[in-house]
Amino acid sequence: MGFGQYGERAVPATSCAPLGASIRVGVADCLASEPAMARVLAGLAGVLSTGAPASLRIADFCPASPPSAQFAALCKTLDGALGRAGRRGRMLTVVVEAGTIDLQAAWQVRCRHLASSDLYAVLPERPPLDVFRQLWTLRHETRFGAASWPVVQSPCALLDAETASDVLPEAALQATAGSAWLHTMIDASELTAARLVEALDTAEAVFEAVAWPTAAMRHDAWLNRRVAVEICGIGDWLIDNSIDPEGHAALVRVDDLLGSAARTLQDHSKSLARSKQLPAIEALDPCRQLRPGELKRTWQRHWRAAVAASALAHRNLLVTSPWSLFAGDHADTRVFNLLPTLSNVDACTFRRRVSVARWNVNDFRGFHGRLRAVLQRSALPSLVAERL
Asked: What is the DSSP letter of 320?
């Protein structure tokens, strides 16, 4: 199958921009130490002063007092600092870990002190029923979301999967702490091989011009050159083509759509890697630790063969949102059938624009349970040792 069946079109100009920064906030340290709080506020101000949005990953509550009280004290301080600096709260995303704080209480604090910000909850691997009940009470809040894809994978067999404990602002991409991503969106109805190649070429040009706002992001951008080509509007594309989302044909078509997109991006990234080696791959070279001699020469031959076969110019390439599988304004539970197609992507975004008002709490649990099952099946171990 592939893109041929969808028809080639004129390739429109592709916009590509960096996602914002994620800043880790240790609550106990910040509330106990003025210098620690000052460092967080200075880091936040530095990011926002560049015009980039920021997310604050809230962690490490003190066990001696209620987490909601600590969160309120932190958000009150943040609100005051943002107000004094004249910064817009809507440039801020707050990220908490579900299970460490009551989510309803966290939402009330957000509404009281940071009402223009988004709030996301990162779900643990096996969320208890109480967490889903808390999520369910917030289901109508459009500025609240849940992220449950805690791994960033790489299509390059030489690179391991990474833990994704943060949520980057705006796209709500669940990503590795301190990582730097360029992001572009392509609607499924406009998806062609030419459009994907152009998106990656645009990202290459943008990489050279971006002034990343933190030292961690500058290092990560150099090391990993992460690109998030996000395919959106998949559910609407199915409806426009009169395909029943519950049928097997829909599963085949969406799997082919995302699989073909992944292969196209990987092929083009591999061609770019011939002239520009990814530093993350260079850093893995096992031959650097070996003494000169026949053993080292043998390993060098194996390593060069593995690099020639598998190296890409980017650590990550394709993302989508599980919510993009739904059409229209309301999330149809029949679309759960399509969740296995997410095994084609490297990471997930979690912005939600569709309503789940017709779901019950078991539907919500089932949605995230199926997401977790897809992730477990697709998260394969590194193939470096096998290839060498």
From this structure: E
DSSP alpha helix (H) spans, 33-98: 34-49, 67-85
The CA distance from 237 to 187, in Å, is 9
Q: Do 356 and 139 contact (CB within 8 A), yes or no?
A: yes
Q: How many residues does the chain have?
A: 388
In whole angstroms, give the CA distance from residue 245 to residue 325.
Answer: 9
Cβ–Cβ under 8 Å, residues 56 and 94: yes
**What is the average pLDDT score of the chain?**
90
Burial (CB count <10 Å: 0-12, 13-18, 19+), residue 290: middle
How far apart CA 121 and CA 133 sit, in angstroms, is: 13
Torsion angle (degrees, nearest 10) of CA 123, 121, 150, 370: 50
Residues ≥6 apart with Cβ < 8 Å to 271 = none
Contacting residues for 157 by C-beta, under 8 A, at least 6 apart: 310, 382, 383, 384, 387
What's the mean pLDDT in 214-234? 97
Q: Which residues of 325-364 are buried (b: 16+ CB within 10 A; e: fewer)?
A: bbbeeebbbebbbbbbbbbbbbbbbbbbebebeebeeeeb
Give CA 4 to chain center in angstroms. 29
- Residue 379 amino acid letter: A
Q: Which ranges in 86-214 belong to alpha helices (H)?
A: 103-113, 129-137, 193-207
CB 311 within 8 A of CB 281: yes
Q: Is 241 helix (H, G, I), strand (E, B) or coil?
A: coil
- 208 by Cβ neighbours in 10 Å (0-12 / 13-18 / 19+) ranks as exposed
Q: Which of 3-12, 89-98, 163-172, 288-297 has the highest mean pLDDT?
A: 163-172
At position 236, the amino acid (one-letter code) is: D
